[in-house]
Design goal:
eight-stranded mixed sheet, 6 helices, 37% strand, transmembrane helix
């Protein structure tokens, strides 16, 4: 057993398995992506890709790293982001005071989060079985006499699925909670990306990628595979499907490092700092909803008092 390492969000220990590249925190759900081990098998598709140019541009590393290919500019200005955040959090009167004042936090800043964006053409050959439900009358034994029993009739199926994937994005940071990244990902419009220019980063916090691109390829392929399997099941049809084999070949595989905009702020809660975000394109606020123990107690007591008065009047 390898020694545990701390979660980057909550500090809880993470058990490290040999060769693991993605760990999940049981305490807060954060995904921690590690760099691949030196002896790790290299994906042949990755080995065929040309390396990217490197330079120093991020705020948290002095060494050269892969230069971004593009970034999506901010559409939401600082003042607007603060107002949207204030309107959202101050309506939560049962939340702790620090959360309700997070728009005033000194930590409020514009940030660019790194994402690996993959594209490929895939050809997938599959072997499967299609199941169709059949109903028959029950006999004298087993189910109740006269009831209907459902069975499944299986038939073989096979074929080929061709797909084109253009913008399969994989978040390359572990500094932001994984659930928050998933929520933010719903609104990214990668078609608005512009060529990378260091001058566009002025006044913004830019973090280096924690997830190496070869590991990002694994996650991107997993997402592509899930999309292919959904299409295969739709083609097989029937009431049930069994899909034991899908062999996928990739062509035209390529990737970009794209920086995506978000406004970030943090606040203290129960001994650690928690994060809220304002989407840099849409202005949508993404945040967990913390609860204040004292405020909940006051609300409970008020509700109990009102219920007591109503019961006393009815008595």
């Amino acid at each position: 057993m390898l020694p545990a390492c701390p979660c980057t969000s909550c500090g809880a220990p993470l058990a490290v398995a040999a060769g693991a590249t993605v760990l999940a925190c049981d305490a807060c759900g954060t995904s921690l992506h590690g760099r691949p081990a030196a002896r790790r098998l290299v994906d042949p598709d990755w080995a065929a890709l040309a390396p990217k140019a490197k330079a120093r541009y991020a705020d948290d590393t002095p060494e050269p790293i892969a230069v971004p290919d593009a970034l999506v500019p901010f559409r939401i200005e600082r003042a607007t982001a603060r107002r949207l955040l204030r309107d959202r959090v101050r309506r939560r009167w049962l939340a702790p005071r620090a959360f309700r004042r997070v728009d005033e936090s000194e930590s409020f800043r514009a940030a660019y989060l790194p994402h690996w964006v993959w594209g490929a053409w895939t050809r997938s050959r599959y072997r499967a079985a299609r199941g169709d439900y059949e109903w028959s009358q029950a006999g004298r034994t087993g189910a109740a006499r006269g009831s209907r029993v459902r069975g499944v009739r299986w038939r073989p199926a096979a074929g080929t699925v061709d797909r084109s994937f253009t913008d399969v994005s994989v978040a390359a940071t572990v500094r932001v909670d994984a659930r928050m990244l998933e929520d933010l990902a719903r609104d990214w419009t990668l078609g608005d990306a512009v060529a990378f220019d260091p001058g566009l980063l002025e006044g913004c916090w830019v973090q280096r990628y924690d997830l190496e691109p070869e590991v990002g390829l694994e996650l991107a392929k997993a997402r592509m595979a899930a999309a292919v399997e959904r299409e295969v099941r739709a083609l097989v049809g029937g009431d049930a499907q069994h899909v034991p084999v899908i062999d996928t070949a990739y062509a035209g595989l390529g990737y970009r490092l794209v920086l995506l905009p978000v406004w970030l702020a943090s606040y203290p809660h129960r001994g650690r700092r928690r994060m809220v975000a304002v989407h840099g394109e849409t202005g949508r606020v993404v945040a967990d909803r913390p609860w204040s123990g004292p405020r909940l107690a006051i609300a409970f007591l008020l509700a109990a008092a009102v219920a007591g008065v109503i019961l006393y009047s009815l008595w």
